[in-house]
UniProtKB/TrEMBL annotation:
Domain NADPH-dependent FMN reductase-like: 3-157
Pfam families xrefs: FMN_red
Source organism, top-level taxon: Bacteria
Protein name, UniProt field: NAD(P)H-dependent oxidoreductase
Length: 190
């Protein structure tokens, strides 16, 4: 059966560079035969995680939607902007909500055993690389298999074509390859 891969950026910004980046990886996964679902976290606003809120109301509807999407996909493509040398609060908050246990679900149902590729882009010279270090560690600790390959693209404000592709064909290929590799691994696991 066809592997399913969920793609999203850790940004709600409408013109997010990281949304552009993850769509390139998503296209690579599609070209390798996977089924890819792209979601925009702007359309799934979540309250800031609050244990009292959860105890009172359970998972908010958008957190349940996000968690169900993650459960129904075997692969993840995540483009993570860097804020103050780490991942964004938006992305960490989404991970925290989706990591919460629920009755009749195995622990870490949204994460355990998923195959993920992570990437980043930033107007800065490091391309968000420092944030990927933290994201990789977090995902590994919640049992995600994160590919050793990752891509950080510097100078985000200069490197994209109007159609969202990267001007440098080698960068375009390496980002596409992240999606291709996740798809190839999932085909082998299936
Ligand atoms: C940033 N930005 C940033 N960039 C970077 O390379 N390293 C950093 O540590 C930070 N820190 C940071 C903190 C905060 C609070 C903001 C708002 C921004 C700049 C950031 O890379 C830029 O806004 C990107 O455009 C964000 O990614 P998206 O939303 O375009 O995907």
């Amino acid at each position: 059966n066809t592997p399913k891969i969920l793609a999203f950026a850790g940004s709600t910004r409408i013109d997010s560079y990281n949304k552009r980046l993850v769509k390139i990886a998503a296209a690579g996964a599609k070209a390798a035969g996977a089924e890819v679902t792209y979601i925009d976290l702007r359309n799934l606003p979540l309250p800031l995680y609050d244990e009292d809120l959860e105890a009172r109301d359970g998972l908010p509807a958008n957190a349940r939607t996000l968690k169900d999407l993650m459960i129904s996909h075997q692969g993840l493509l995540i483009a993570s902007p860097e804020y103050n040398s780490s991942l964004t609060a938006v992305l960490k908050n989404a991970i925290d909500w989706a990591s919460r246990p629920a009755p009749n679900e195995p622990p870490l149902a949204a994460f355990a055993g998923k195959v993920a590729a992570i990437m980043s882009t930033s107007p800065g010279g490091l391309g968000g690389l420092r944030g990927l270090v933290h994201l990789r560690s977090i995902l590994g600790n919640i049992k995600v298999l994160v590919l050793p390959d990752q891509v950080a693209v510097p100078n985000a404000d200069q490197v994209f074509n109007a159609d969202g592709s990267l001007k440098d064909p080698r960068q375009q290929e390496s980002v596409g390859n992240l999606g291709r590799t996740v798809a190839d691994i999932l085909f082998k696991l299936n």
